[in-house]
Amino acid sequence: MARAGHAYPQVEPGVEAVMDRRVVSVAPRASVARALQRARAAGAAIVALGRRSAARTAELATAADWGLGARPARSVAWRDLPTVPVRATEVDVRRRLLAGASLVLVRRARVIVAAVDAHRCAVLPAESSVLPSLERGGDRQAEARLWLLRVAGKVGEGLGTSTYAVGGFVRDLLLGAAPPDVDLVVEGDGVAFARRLAEEIGGTLLVHGSFGTASIEGGRAPAGAGLDGVALGRVDIASARRERYSSAGALPDVEPAGLLEDLRRRDFSVNALAVALAPDRFGRLIDPLGGQPDVRARCLRALRPLAFVEDPTRIFRAARYAARLDLRPDAATRAGLRLGIDASPYAALSGQRLWRELELVAAESSARHAFELLVRWKATKLWNAGILSAGYLSQAERFAQWAKGAGVAVDRSEVFLIALSIGRPPATVERTLDRLTLTGEPRARIEAGVLAGALARRLDGARVRPSEVDEILAVAPETAALAAWLRGGPRARRRIQWYLASGRAVRPRLSGADLLALGVPRGPRVGEALGMLRRRRLDGDLGSLAEERGLVKEWLTSGKEA
Hints:
By secondary structure, the chain is an alpha+beta fold. It folds into four domains: 15-120, CBS-domain, CATH 3.10.580; 128-297, Beta Polymerase, domain 2 (2-Layer Sandwich); 351-451; 512-558, no CATH class. 45% of the residues lie in helices and 13% in strands. The strands form five sheets. The chain has an eight-stranded mixed sheet with strand order 7-16-15-8-9-12-11-10. A three-stranded mixed sheet has the order 1-2-3. Helix 20 crosses helix 24. The longest helix has 20 residues, at 140-159.
């Protein structure tokens, strides 16, 4: 029994309280299969691969199941792990776990004798408030977003579910950017929450029941809130979940889980952040994986060595984030990218998913930089048997910018894919289109674009009249015109821009009815006359309506072909 007034010594727990001794050491160059065999024979949960690398036995088993058994075990391991001596305190270890370490290795002298696994050690990070960031901005859109988040928290409280803003919304908030959309996670029934939230904010609700997700578009803050119906943008809602990948590149199997597991299953630490929305905790930042320090350092850190193998589309996301947000992959992430790219092709990764990722990259304002990164990383192997070139990407960016300013509609994904494919052998282009499962008109447009070298040479000619430019381009797919722009010289580019922006829209002042009234016979002769008038107008030979009438009368009396 404790004695009143007696001073008892305070004992700080050591690392022994949380460490796992089921560790076996294997040479770093050993294969995944060999390391897994050693681990299973020793009953080990963790395999040490040198002094600062290790892998969980379960992770080695997954790598082996996905066809990586012959690769060096170190290529699928955690790298640059923190180490502590066996005399370290539990506080020392937890501090490293809070910084984002998945494993902390415990050493005696220079030998790894144990490890602390973040998945088996409950770590509750100290929460800081981001409420000042949420309230900052002063514009009506920021005020409407804050109103939405408070309403979401109250809806969650009413349903008895914890609700959080997560992912890119929180990342952009910490970067000082204005998040365009809101991502919410609910520890519970996300669809039921979404239905209730839609009643509060209006808009159109789209439910994906099998995934436990929903989205609301077109919602508005009510005038009664002093916001005069400000549009709220898109709101995505998901139930907190864990994911399991049955094979590399496959869509995951999901099941309900808590917030911590939901954050751990994400791609990068900067996306594994959450902000509590419950009224009594509103604005509290939850960062169990060290995402906030990575945001400050502009570091892009993958959450698992196998992150890009389990979901290769993360490679495209890495390029988009690096280009748009100026995030730099750390050494471990770069190693993971190499592994994910080298492990291709992925039988479970559909061409439609690949094409969708290319569309997302092309839609970025920094698309050129993102595609250059993909080429530098050799990620083009994911959708092509060979390595494509980045040589025409700067021209593709210039053309896309011109088209936007001129009001010319172009498919940016087709523009950039053509730019990447120009100069490649036809068989390589065919393999690319086969891998992306492009068929029909999209495929025909890209094929025509890639093979537009002769078109560019014709349009670069010294003496090509506007009517000849029209004749050349009118029968070519629009993608052939843009590809000719990419490959052509200044003269060809000026002519193509003229044609796309205004030349193709030129029409005679006289109509078919006017021609009949002037005596042109019904039938093909009307079309011939209209074509003649258009060509002459394109070449600047006609101005007024009277000049067109005079030319038609002259043509009728001469009996010449149009």
